[in-house]
TrEMBL record:
The modification 4-aspartylphosphate is found at residue 54. This is Response regulator transcription factor. SUPFAM superfamilies: CheY-like. InterPro entries: CheY-like_superfamily, LytR-like, LytTR_DNA-bd_dom, Sig_transdc_resp-reg_receiver. Residues 142-213 form the HTH LytTR-type domain. Keywords: Phosphoprotein.
């Protein structure tokens, strides 16, 4: 099965593509998103084989997305504007779907992707599990403070993450990085373990906790509360971890 992601800043457009993916036997829908940054993190994590990608998105265009993700996955472009086709093919896309998309045209593009991806996926399936795990990335990209600026953050460098309304602060040993993204969206992109939500405003790396005293965690000089909602699950995990 080819793992697919539909990316479009208009939810109804990605829903159409998602419905087509579901009815195609050799495709598997991983998800849909209106956020190119969420999509980029999924691609960088190796969770996607094929992206159906809108070109005109306000935060990050499809062409910019292609340049960042490189050869991490294959891409089929979707857009209402045919003049963007040439730029896409210069970046080695599989095909170009002009909106409104018919299922017949969708299936033709998907079949083309299958011919390209099937030999690659067959080889991957023959590799030991350990080898596949080693290929997973240990970093993510977060949006910077200006348009089209992205910051690479290694998971191992993150101490904890603090959410404040519609932006979050990512704290490392040496710096504080601010990205305009709700904490709940960032949470799903982080590997668990080592990252756990312990409060409505905090995600911590278990590896960086120096001490736990009652309902308070200590990471370096920072004290972080464990919220009532998260307390039972968190301490159950800690106890089971100690027994292991």
């Amino acid at each position: 099965m080819i793992r697919c992601l539909a990316v479009d800043d208009e939810a109804y457009a990605s829903d159409v593509v998602a419905a087509f993916i579901k009815k195609t036997p050799f495709l598997e829908l991983i998800g849909t998103t209106t956020s190119p940054f969420e999509a980029l993190n999924l691609v960088q994590a190796g969770a996607v084989d094929l992206v159906f990608l809108d070109i005109q998105m306000p935060e990050l265009t499809g062409i910019q997305f292609l340049k960042i993700c490189g050869d991490k996955c294959k891409v089929i472009l979707t857009t209402a504007y045919s003049e963007f086709a040439l730029a896409g093919f210069d970046l080695d896309v599989v095909d170009y779907l002009l909106k409104p998309i018919s299922y017949e045209r969708f299936y033709k593009a998907a079949s083309k992707a299958k011919q390209i991806l099937q030999p690659v996926l067959s080889l991957q399936n023959e590799k030991p599990v350990q080898a596949i795990v080693q290929q997973e990335n240990d970093f993510m990209f977060i949006k910077g403070d200006t348009k089209n600026k992205f910051l690479k953050v290694n998971y191992n460098d993150i101490l904890y993450i603090e959410g404040l309304k519609n932006y979050v602060s990512v704290y490392t040993e040496t710096q504080r990085l601010i990205t305009y993204q709700p904490l709940r969206e960032l949470e799903v992109e982080l590997p668990k373990p080592p990252f756990y939500r312990v409060h409505k405003s905090y995600i911590v790396s278990l590896e960086k906790i120096k001490m736990i005293d009652g309902n308070t965690l200590f990471i370096n000089d920072q004290s972080i509360p464990v919220g009532e909602t998260y307390k039972e699950e968190f301490f159950k995990m800690i106890r089971e971890g100690k027994k292991g």
